[in-house]
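Work package 3, deliverable 3.1, input record:
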Amino acid sequence: MSLSEYENAGPVAHLTHRDRVLDRSMEAAMAAWSIYSALAIGLTAAIPSVRLTNTVDGLPVILTILIAMFLIIGNTSILRGLIRGGGTLRQGWRIERNGIVISGTGWLAYGTAVFITKPTSTLIMSLSIMLLTGYAFRLVDIGRKTKRNIHYYATGT
Amino acid sequence: MPFSAIWPIGRRPASLGERCLVHSIPLVVAIWGAYFGLVALLESFLDTDLTTLILMIPLPIAVAVGVFQIVGNTTFALGLLNGNDDISVGWHIERKGIALAISGWMSYAVSVFITDPRSTVQWTLCLTMSLGLAGRAVLTWRAEHHIRSTMIEEEHDAEPPLHDHPPAPETD
């Protein structure tokens, strides 16, 4: 029997929290870092004595704090959706999808603001573009999985 | 066992598009990591002004980070998209790429931490990338271990018990 036959195994159930985080380790890690970076840019913008990053130089304080809030709320939802404690797969996907939309809005605003104020910060801009692309693919993937999940429970196939 | 890592696509092998969808975030992180490596190399030898982040670390380390990132992340992405019938082939390629990419990220994180520890966003990003990659490596190792042990169990169960064996032919 080839290993590929196991790739197409049936629907997944009874995953532990550790399995769920390991399963989506990169998504979970990026969400956790996004929360930290949002805290860093929010605190740096709001409290002048705190200096955790240079990328917010020149950005309006209100806008930076708003971006930070979007990123914190969105990525917390993504983490909740990935871990989906006690919930079904579909509930987890719904929470994650909401988080992706909110976080994507935050990254889009941050990338645009950095592009306007500091066009030479190509790494931050490219990271925003890459994450937005990844989020878009993930949304499509979640949509497909939800459809397949509904079909499975409706027909058993 | 985290089977959703190798999400059941159906009763057929996953296509390239489906692989891209399932591994979207690891893929974009790998592409960005390779781009980061390219920027590190360009900044080391040319005055491209793409970023000022690389300028604060020593040149040999910047070059090493660039090479590790480009090779490691490209290998990782190729492993994710590998369409071999035996998915362990893709996992092996992935793990090689992960080892190189983690080396690159950690070298950069340590360099930044030593030269400018207040740039927390930068070195925490490198640590996060490394953690995410390490998680993926552990996952593929566990999945492979689980599948192999399941295969051995199934092969063992398939063997008929001793008393069902046909009698040995009588000899003169």
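Helices of chain B lie at 16-22, 24-45, 59-81, 87-115, 120-158.
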